[in-house]
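Help: why these numbers?

___
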Amino acid sequence: LQLHHSGHYHCGGWVSFGLTQEWKESSPVTVTVHGVLLSEVSLWVWPPGGQVALGDHQVLSCTVAKGTGPLSFTWHWGGSGTLLGPSPYRELCHTGDSDS
């Protein structure tokens, strides 16, 4: 379910009485979909331990186990606050000294 699925729902169908058919509907019910706070945010690193040789690839992946979207991700390097990108997946190609 998504937040936009909230609303009033009912069902209906044709009911037969001998040769007569009649359309019948249930009483409506209200469905409210609540947002879930983000939790269990994890960072996955490959190769494990974050140790890479100069020129190798480093893969970072951010996941959220629970939460109501829309979600957005940002990557930051060190304490500088430098924005590295909005994707949950980040690949550092040809790592150098400046990527530590």
